[in-house]
């Protein structure tokens, strides 16, 4: 057995041991039980006599009869990933994801560069395999054969993406080190990508008059499929379609037919990466140091950001909440960028496809209206869990925060303000977009305004609960930048999610009662249903609840021992 | 200025600090020394309010750190051994945030003076990731000194500093003491403590073993027949002299 294989196997075995060992802690054990129960009920529960629940009724069901569209939009998503990587590469130098121990042990060891690259590339594929297995379980293809096809297909797609992004990074470094000729060649791939983009955007642009007249999302999709399946656009998308068709093959024969081209592209990428002459060692060592710091909870995962303007000028006098809001908004401003947004393009492509498949009416504007409404509700209900730029992130700095002459309640309010502000802005933007793009939905402006009024209150209540959990049971949430993994951790998060929903439901009751009473009084007085004024009262109630809650959580924070906070969760 | 009375801090079964009492008056620089695990950092963290004492009281300028934390903390600055900065705030933004938190009035003048004193000129718009460890230490110190605190606590203040930085740091600590500040310096560098501290407290296993000026400790040591250097005294008092 080669030393690198030995290292890989030992690491896997010991990681498993650590995961098993941590089950001694009740929170992980309970989490594991819940996680396993979830998977059991999701995949192996007795089938319903009425339908195919548990087999074939998964999320992939929405793709039935739409394999061609799925394959095509998968190809567009893959193209977007590759295009962004080439046109807008990472500012940091190429780095394969070696650990600090890898750098210290393997770099000085008598291994060739190719051996090291091969070791790291193949090891990273293990992660891709696990990710593919999880995706297969969640999307539940309809049957064992399609399950295996989907798993293998997704594994190959993820492996190609992984290799290609590594290759892009190494290639740009290599080209950059070869003088003027290298610099000239460096722009060649970008030019190819640019031309490809012009072809795709131009194809859609030329056909825009036709697309704009269409009245349903399905029609738009069909037209886009026709456009991208013919002419120059089909040539541009061919390699991406060759990969994307694999997971969605309708039969084993179709899978076998698509396999050679996909494997060929995978092999080409592998050879390209392994043959690279880029000097990756130094950058890998730097990356390993950064990752090690992140694991110690010293630094967030974002790349080093250049200092930019602050969101507003912080006055030297005023409430501490504003200062904390200012600090956290700066963090967000320096973490996110247009590039970050562009990286989400593939997700928007897939999401747009799903919305369109839902058969929204009204063509492109109808799709925007439905998408805005969906994003609004997702932001209100899921946003507070995802936007963690509050105490969940800052508890890692509790030792610093505790030295400030600021009461816990003010700290809690200040910490909640940044995510609340950002989520509210997103919600309002979506509500306005939906209002103006959905005349056919006949949405009364007062309803949209009421939703805009209620959104901040509901977001604040959820943020308060999330922060209260972080203060009361810090070991149950991920503190700082690092996220723990595993079925047991997933189970923990599910328990938290259920608890959060219960608390949210209870917290909304007073607001609902107040709003309902106002609505009844108005109805009694005017004999018609009014929503705006009840929404104002309900929102005010939620706000008061949040303020009172922040006082309670603040008192708990004042009593919290720094020693209870573990930012290095493994 | 700083009054620690019968402080005890326990972590589960472990008693990190045990019935520890001492005071630091304005103008005094007290060196807190002890072996690893003696309870120095726990004591400092309790004094600045990062951790709550298990029993005992701590007062800063007459304000109890548990009962009146905001008033007490307004007068404190704590410079930890590992500088903790916010990753996405520049040096100047750290100072501005600190100024707002502590309600500092003449911010611009003070910030400029501190940046000059700590040789941070030209680094105003740098993020922590762009600074060396020593520079980060200086930023943390600048933030600590910005509100002109009356109680200053330094935990291993020389870690990561270059020779010139060490000289400046020593000068800064001594100047704050002379300006009437109550200063505590916790360090393993006995020569530093011997050089700049007006009084020395030796702690081991959470218990105070000695408290006095260098002259007082030397006199006691000579009476006991041991050497008069702080190193000799420290090793003898802590029972580490083999």
Account of the protein in words:
The complex is a heterodimer of chains A (570) and B (242). Chain A folds into 3 domains: 1-45; 57-288, no CATH class; 318-564, no CATH class. Chain A contains 22 helices and no strands. Chain A has helices spanning 3-21, 26-44, 67-87, 100-106, 113-139, 144-176, 179-206, 208-213, 217-228, 231-244, 252-274, 281-295, 320-335, 338-343, 345-357, 363-386, 391-394, 398-403, 408-437, 445-472, 487-526, 532-559. The longest helix of chain A is centred in the C-terminal third of the chain and has 40 residues, at 487-526. Chain A is globular, with a radius of gyration of 26 Å. Chain A starts with a helix and ends in an 11-residue tail after the last helix. Chain B has 242 residues and is an alpha/beta fold. Helix content of chain B is 38%, strand content 25%. Chain B has helices spanning 40-47, 69-73, 91-102, 107-117, 133-146, 163-178, 190-196, 214-223, 230-237; strands at residues 2-11, 14-24, 29-33, 55-60, 63-64, 76-79, 151-155, 182-186, 199-204, 207-212. In chain B, strands 6-7-8-3-9-10 form a 6-stranded mixed sheet, with helices on both faces. In chain B, β7, α6 and β8 form a beta-alpha-beta unit. Chain B is globular and about 55 Å long. Classes of the chains: A mainly alpha (570), B alpha/beta (242). The A-B interface holds A 299-300, 302, 304-307, 310, 314-318, 320, 322-323, 326-327, 330-331, 334-335, 397-400, 402-407, 558-559, 561-563 and B 11, 45, 48-52, 69-74, 76, 78, 80, 84, 86-90, 93, 96-97, 99-105, 107, 125-127, 129-130.
